[in-house]
Amino acid sequence: MSILKRIVKVCVTAAALLLLASCASPKKFVYLNDMEPGQQYPVNTETVTIVHENDRLDIKVSCKNPELAVPFNSQVGAYRLSADGGVTAAGAESLEQGYRVDADGNIIFPILGKISVAGKSLKQVSDMIAGMIELHAEGGYIRDPQVSIEFLNFKYTVLGAVGSKGTFTVDGDRITILEAIAKAGDLSKEARLDRIAVVRTVDGKQEIYYNDIRTADIFMSPTYYLQQNDIVYVEPKTKPRNENAWQFTSLIVSILSLGSSLIWALSGTGIIGG
């Protein structure tokens, strides 16, 4: 019976070791593992940031004569330019910071009134407002106005196998997918580096892009630079719990079956029992 006890002990030990091996999943990530020192890799810099509903924009107008741009830079009340160049105020209600894009895709801009901006890039909005100011200022009142626009609430969301899921805000309008993952506490040990999705709103519809951050190809991805309201989803590599339970059961059954076979074989040789 001593040999039988040894066999049982070996089987139990093997089961325990296999179980520990199956549960262990050390975090061994290698980002950009095909990059070589001294080599240069192109980056997709053609990303166009699009304005959406509920965005908040910081818009500043400048020109050679700064005082002439004052009416266009005020968010308190409305201003009117008289024929002789005078500035008059109409109303003084306090507005929240920045210009919020309403549900119809419009902003209310001083003097110019309602402007449709949703679906346009920041550059398109900037050029449009500059053109409207020139048209409004007949007789060359303001020539070559410069319009700068930035997001005040640029945000993105990170979900899935990361350290800290949530919605994050950014100063300005430029952040890469790698920076976004870092801000979310990096990838967890369950993350798949080859299945990092970005869900983006394009023309009112949702589109999904998959990225593999193991290679330098990520630099040329259309989602390397995130856009306003992008959702980054890091797909986990773990399988559903019920599937893991089935695999564990199969493992135990296999070990027990192996132990039974060994005992039967040894019994047949007369080493056990008799």
How do you describe this structure in short?
The protein has 274 residues and is an alpha+beta fold. It has helices at residues 2-23, 66-69, 122-136, 177-183, 241-269, and strands at 56-62, 78-81, 87-90, 99-100, 106-109, 113-116, 146-151, 154-160, 166-170, 191-202, 205-211, 231-236. The strands form four sheets. Strands 9-8-12-10-11 form a five-stranded mixed beta sheet, covered by helices on one side.
What does this 3D model show about the protein?
- With 274 residues, the protein is α+β, with helices and mostly antiparallel strands.
- It has helices spanning 2-23, 66-69, 122-136, 177-183, 241-269, and strands at 56-62, 78-81, 87-90, 99-100, 106-109, 113-116, 146-151, 154-160, 166-170, 191-202, 205-211, 231-236.
- Strands 9-8-12-10-11 form a 5-stranded mixed sheet, with helices on one face. A 3-stranded antiparallel sheet has the order 4-1-7. A two-stranded antiparallel sheet has the order 2-3.
- The radius of gyration is 32 Å and the shape is elongated.
- It starts with a helix and ends in a 5-residue tail after the last helix.
For the structure shown, list the relevant keywords:
single chain; 274 residues; alpha+beta; wza like fold; Outer membrane lipoprotein wza fold like; 3 domains; five-stranded mixed sheet; three-stranded antiparallel sheet; 5 helices; 28% helix
